[in-house]
Design a protein that fits this description.
- This protein is of the alpha+beta class and 413 residues long.
- A hairpin with a 4-residue loop joins β6 and β7.
- 38% of the residues are buried.
- The strands form five sheets. An eight-stranded mixed beta sheet has the order 1-11-12-13-16-10-9-4. It has a three-stranded antiparallel beta sheet with strand order 5-7-6.
- It folds into two domains: 86 residues, Helix Hairpins (Orthogonal Bundle); 304 residues, BirA Bifunctional Protein, domain 2.
Length: 413
């Protein structure tokens, strides 16, 4: 969440930032109204309690009783005001850095660089679903019968490729100082909201289990990020980096009609995620470091990709800056997002109360960053399409051959 003090003292800056993210600046005015009332009622409550204490000390029973009733009525009003204020602040996105490209949607994202050579097949490339069906790697038809649309069975060598990708990411990132972690995939509503995902719930994109009042994570970030909730880290221990793996779940509520076939946009997917807890002054350099790790992984797979700086209108709600890595998909003749990398500054840490102790003894909010190492399904798509051969086989990327145990995937008959 945003710092209420920032909204109170710099309303014009906040209005400018949320307007850049295509949200109404009226949000600021509404919050300030509730905030002013909240502060007024808080002071009145404190004053009445102080007066009640003095009445008790002077044995003024009648005055103390009257004050008790006044305090009860005032604090009922304060509780409602606090509830409205707290709900409203969750609707504020993080403010983008001033140098982030301003734009209305993905068409105004900025291409930073293109890396790698696009494959020149000398034949018309097949799409990944055709190849996967012929090689018995993905079965969406059977998954549809059993689970419904936007699910898939990953089979045979594709399973080995998945675990090879996980192994590659883990080994690469552990060497770079990331600690491996396997997080839970169910979290409490207040944790999801604290991580800046109130809209994920509000937009009904999150899967909810009412009986237990728990939400399935939509990204590994949702449950790895809160690991240091309500903790005060030591400055000397920063940055703290984690690499985690989990299955993730999304309703894809806002994607009706988009990518309905295959495994590109599904309700359940596996992901290897990077999370960093950083000092504020280091978060931008940490962001670049995490992006470099994404590029290192993509280069090791020898996949052609490009790096995008995401504009204000397309970036994620909690982000102050976001980069995406998009990988070339030959059958579509275009790049598709396979990884994102975000600096959320103190937006998430404020929501989960994650701080660090500075050298001069102050407690400050850490900056939190997250980045996809591999979104497994989308990476499998990119491998299948970019490494296909004229006779319908799939070459295994060199870096994964030892794990998969073969050089190529061939038809079974």
């Amino acid at each position: 969440m945003l710092d209420p003090k920032l909204i109170r003292e710099n309303p014009d800056k906040v209005k400018q930032g949320i307007k850049a993210k295509n949200l109404s600046s009226k949000l600021v005015d509404d919050f300030l109204d509730f905030d002013e009332k909240w502060r007024k009622l808080t002071k009145e409550s404190e004053d009445l309690r102080a007066e009640q204490k003095r009445a008790g000390e002077s044995k003024d029973v009648e005055r103390a009783k009257k004050l008790k009733d006044e305090i009860k009525n005032l604090e009922e009003n304060l509780a409602k005001t606090t509830q409205n204020r707290d709900a409203l602040i969750l609707e504020f996105p993080n403010l983008p850095f001033e140098d982030v490209p301003v734009g209305k949607d993905e068409t105004e994202n900025k291409i930073l660089r293109e890396v790698g050579k696009k494959p020149d097949f000398g034949f018309e490339p097949k799409d990944y679903l055709t190849l996967a069906k012929n090689l018995d790697l993905i079965d969406v038809e059977k998954a549809g019968e059993i689970s419904g649309s936007r699910f898939g069975y990953i089979k045979n060598e594709a399973v080995l490729l998945e675990f090879a990708l996980i192994d590659l990411a883990m080994k690469t990132l552990i060497k770079e100082g990331f600690s491996p972690i396997l997080p839970p995939v169910l979290i409490k509503p207040e944790i999801m909201k604290g991580m800046g995902k109130a809209n994920f719930i509000k937009d009904k994109d999150a899967y909810h289990i009412p009986e237990d009042d728990l939400y399935l994570v939509g990204s590994s970030e949702h449950s790895i990020g809160p690991y240091h909730m309500n903790e005060v880290l030591n400055e000397k221990d920063l940055p703290k980096r984690y690499v985690g793996f989990s299955t993730c779940f999304r309703r894809e509520a806002g994607s009706y009609g988009k990518d309905t076939k295959g495994i590109l946009r599904v309700h359940q997917f596996d992901k290897v995620e990077m999370i960093t807890f950083s000092k504020p002054e280091d978060s931008e350099s940490q962001h670049q470091f995490m992006l470099s790790m994404q590029e290192k992984l993509m280069k090791s797979l020898e996949l052609p990709y490009r790096v995008m700086e995401i504009c204000t209108g397309d970036m994620t709600f909690a982000d102050a800056r976001q980069f995406d890595v998009e990988t070339w998909i030959p059958s579509e003749n275009k790049y598709r997002e396979t990884q994102s990398c975000s600096n959320t500054t103190d937006y998430q840490s404020r929501g989960i109360n994650a701080k660090y102790l500075t050298k001069d003894g102050k407690k400050e909010f850490v900056h939190m960053l997250n980045g996809t190492a591999f979104a497994i399904g989308r990476t499998l798509i990119a491998i299948i399409e970019n490494f296909q051969t004229k006779d319908g086989k799939i070459k295994i990327p060199k870096v994964l051959k030892d794990y998969v145990g073969k050089k190529e995937i061939s038809p079974k008959n």
